[in-house]
Amino acid sequence: MNSNTKAYLVGAGIGSLSAAAFMIRDGGIPGANITIFEAMPLPGGSLDGGGDDRAGYTLRGGRMLTTDNYECTWDLFKSIPSLQHPGQSVFDETIAFNLENIPESKARLIDRNRFKVDVSSMGFSMTDRLELVRLSESDEETLGTSSITDWLSPEFFETKFWFMWATTFAFQPWHSAVEFKRYLHRFMKEFSRIETLAGVKRTVYNQFDSLVRPLLAWLKDKGVVFVMDCTVTDLAMATGADGKWVVTGIECQREGAVEMLPVAPDDLVFFQNGSMTDASSYGAMDRPPAHLTKKDSGGWALWEKLSQGRPEFGNPAAFNSSIPESYWASFTVTLKDPVFFDQMEKFTGNRAGTGGLVTFKDSNWFMSVVLAHQPHFIGQPEGTQVFWGYALHPDRIGDFVAKPMAECSGAEILQELCGHLNFDQSVMASATCIPCRMPYITSMFMPRALADRPLPVPRNSNNLAFVSQFVEIADDVVFTVEYSVRAAQMAVYQLLDVAREVPPVTPHDASLKVKLEALIKAF
C-alpha cells in the first residue's frame, strides 16, 4: 500500500527532511512520491549556515548534541552517508571527530574583572537545593503554565549553576517551569558536568554543512522532489466518515500565482507548524538588524489559520504573542587574522573546538561566545576563522557601548566583546561581524498549557501530521534537533503503521549512578 502513497511536506526544516527519510527507509514510500514545499530559496530551516569569507559567514545559531541522548537523531544519521568521508555515515564521522576534539571547558564563566570563575561547585544555598528538587519532582499538571520564577527564589538566578545552565540551553527566568523541569530530567547526566560541557558533541562543520547537506544529498538521490520559493497558504480540510479531519488540497503561492494541489484520501501531509527563526533579520558591520515581527514574514499564518476552531491543532498564540520574552540576538564573526583566536586560546586554555561557550556572567547583555574547530564551513579558505556568539538580554544597555545590543551594528558588538575581554580593538581589525535578531528564538519555551501543542498526529486527524518544535512529545525537550526528528519519526510510524519501534527516550534520570553524581554536584 505504501508504495502508492504520496506525501507532501510543508517546510524544509530538519523535521520535514527527517520525515521524508523515515518514509523512504522504514515506510516503503518511494522518494519520487514525496514532495517538499519551502518558502525560502534554501532548505534546512533553522539549521542554517551561509555567507562566505568575503562578505562574512552567517549562523543564526548552533545546536548542542549529545550521544547519551538524541536517540532518534542518531538512528537517522547512522543511515545517511557522509559527504566528506566515503564509507562512513554522518554518525560515524561525528563520533570520530569528537574523539579527536574532546570538550573540556577551562573558562566556562568569566566575571567583570576577566577572572575565570571557579565552577567546581554550583554555588547553591540549601534553599536553592530544596527549591530545585521541589520543582524537578513536581508533576506537569501542578506546574501548569507557571514560569521558573514562580518556583525559585531571586538568589537562585545568581548561582553559577544558573549562569551555566541558562546559557547552555538558552533559558530565561520567565520561561516555562515545565520545560525547565523536563531539561533537568532529560539532561540530568549533564548536570554533573555542566561546567566542562564534557557531554557535548559537535559536528565537523556547522550543522547545515554537517547534517543538512548529507541528508539533502541522500533524499535527492532517492528522488524526493523539492519545490523552493513556494509558500503554502492554506490546507483544504474535510471531515471523513469517521469524523476526523482529512487534508484534501494544498494551496500554494509561487511566482505570484496561486494554485490548489489535490490531495487524495490515502496521501499524507506533514506540516512544520511554527518556526523559532521566523522573522529573523541580519545586520552588518555598520548597521543593526531590522526589527521584524510575524507580520513581516507570515511564518505563523498557516498554523494560526488551521488552529481556528480546531483546538486539537494547538494554540500558536501561547508562543508568538510576546517578542520581548522570546527573542535574543546572535552574531557571527569572520576573521582574516589569527590574533584573536590566538589570544582567546591563550586566555581560556582551550584549543578552538574544545572549549564550548565562554559566558561573561556579569555582562548586561548576558553575552557568550564559542570558538568552533576550524574550518567551520565547507570551502572556508585557509587563513579564515569563524566564531559565533549570542546574548540573552539584547534589550539592555551594554557595559562598553551605551545602547541595547538590538540597536548595535556589528562593529559595536565587537567593541563590547573586546571590552569584556580587555583586548585591544586592533585584534578585530580584519573582522566582519554580522548580527542577527531572532524575535521567536525561544518561543517554544514560553509558559503554555498541555493543549497548546498538538500531538504529532492529532487524535482527530486522518492524514495530517505536525512535525516541529511546537508539538507535544512526553518527556522530551524542545530547542533540540532531537525533538524535531523524534516528532517526524513518531508521525511517520503512526501514519504508515510501521512496525519498527521509535527509539525510546533514555531514562538517565532513573539511573542511581546519575542521581548520585547530580546530588554530589549539587553539594
Strand content: 15-25%
The end-to-end distance, rounded to whole angstroms, is 58 Å
Q: How many DSSP E strands?
A: 17
Basic shape: globular
Q: Biggest sheet: strands, sense, closure?
A: 7 strands, mixed
Number of helices: 17
Please give the share of residues in helix.
Answer: 25-40%
Q: What topology, given as strand order, has the largest sheet?
A: 5-13-14-15-12-16-11
- Rg over CA atoms: 23 Å
Q: Give the mean pLDDT.
A: 94
Structural class: alpha/beta
Question: Which spans of ≥5 residues are poorly predicted at pLDDT below 50?
Answer: none
Structure overview:
The strands form 4 sheets. The protein has a 7-stranded mixed β-sheet with strand order 5-13-14-15-12-16-11. It has a 5-stranded parallel β-sheet with strand order 6-2-1-10-17, covered by helices on one side. Helix 1 (14-25) packs parallel to helix 9, helix 1 (14-25) packs across helix 16 (481-495) and helix 2 (71-77) crosses helix 16. The relative contact order is 0.19. The chain has helices spanning 14-25, 71-77, 90-100, 126-137, 140-143, 160-169, 177-186, 188-191, 207-221, 294-297, 301-307, 317-320, 323-326, 339-348, 410-421, 481-495, 512-522; strands spanning 7-10, 34-37, 50-52, 56-58, 109-110, 225-227, 231-239, 245-254, 257-262, 268-271, 281-282, 328-335, 358-360, 367-371, 385-391, 432-438, 464-466. With 523 residues, the chain is α/β, with parallel strands linked by helices. Strand 8 and strand 9 form a beta hairpin. The protein has 17 helices and 17 strands. The model has no long low-confidence stretch (mean pLDDT 94). The chain is globular and about 70 Å long.
